[in-house]
Design a protein that fits this description.
Layout: E1 10-14, H1 22-32, E2 36-41, H2 43-48, H3 51-58, E3 61-64, H4 70-84, E4 88-93, H5 99-102, H6 112-136, E5 139-149, H7 163-185, E6 188-194, H8 208-218, H9 226-237, E7 248-251, H10 262-271
Helix pairs in contact: 1-3, 1-9, 4-6, 6-7
């Protein structure tokens, strides 16, 4: 149930592709909470996805921008401010892609040209977005920027490949830029480390279905849904989190701090023909 947490606020949502996207669901939540938004994605993603459908639902303008292009992002900031009649209050960075994952290169046999593209698209793009926003003075004081991350930045999940390195860099950019943007404009920058989620991007990771089940059994609260993540992002855009910055916030049902769970132990014992008592 919407509570108008974001009434009067304006923002940019990067990365909505289709209804499975966390960015898509976040856009809907933000609008329900009273915000006005601009939607942005790379030109190729605009052709492949359903963003115009989302734009109609949100009464939002769509502005194409390649997040690896400073010129595109500079133009996006200016167009967004023109569209909203002034500065914005929040941004969601939901951008990530690995050519190595798509082309099934093993991590130990990585193609380094692909690796650099992974880092550029999935992590350095956050730096570019923040740099363009700061240069244009596009964010109001006490604005909020959230990037979507994953626990593979801290722990090894073999199938996640070079995206793990990209997420580690993404979180570092959020801390470093958050420091500078905080002192300059009181803008806060955080990352949200979400549960494995059924999205177009997530589903491309090797062994995703197995790990989704594993994480569900490991997490005391179960996996956090995309809808739950959207609500969490909206809270981070709101004034209730004004003093939260430079953090990587785990939104994963407790997975990140659970060593082992009873359902996992029971499953292993059952596979070995044993019981908890035996």
């Amino acid at each position: 149930m919407a509570n108008q947490l974001l009434k009067g606020k304006k923002g940019i949502i990067f990365g909505a592709l289709d209804e499975r996207s966390i960015a898509w669901k976040t856009a809907l939540v933000c609008v329900a909470e009273g915000a006005e938004i601009t939607l942005s994605n790379a030109p190729i993603a605009l052709r492949m996805g359903k963003i115009n459908e989302l734009a109609s639902m949100c009464n939002a303008k769509v502005i194409a921008a390649d997040a690896t292009s400073t010129a595109d992002l500079d133009s996006l900031m200016q167009q967004s401010m023109e569209n909203h009649g002034g500065k914005i209050d929040f941004m969601l960075h939901s951008i990530g892609m690995s050519p190595n994952v798509r082309k099934k290169f093993a991590y130990t046999d990585t193609n380094y040209e692909n690796f650099l593209k992974t880092l550029d698209i999935s992590a350095l793009s956050l730096h570019r977005v923040l740099q363009s926003a700061m240069k244009a003075d596009a964010l109001n004081e006490w604005g909020s920027v959230v990037g979507l991350s994953y626990i593979a930045a801290q722990r090894t999940f073999p199938g996640y490949n070079d995206m793990a390195d990209a997420k580690a860099l993404l979180e570092s950019v959020a801390r470093s830029f958050g420091y500078h943007y905080g002192f300059a404009k009181k803008v806060r920058v955080n990352t949200v480390s979400q549960s494995p989620t059924v999205t177009t991007a997530g589903s491309g990771v090797s062994g995703f279905d197995v790990f989704l089940e594993y994480a569900e059994k490991m997490s005391p609260l179960g996996n956090a849904s995309a809808e739950d993540c959207a609500n969490y992002c909206a809270m981070l855009f709101s004034d209730y989190t004004r003093m939260v910055t430079m953090q990587n916030l785990f939104h994963d049902g407790g997975f990140s701090f659970t060593g082992v769970s009873t359902p996992i132990v029971d499953q292993i014992l059952k596979a070995n023909g044993e019981t908890a008592e035996g």
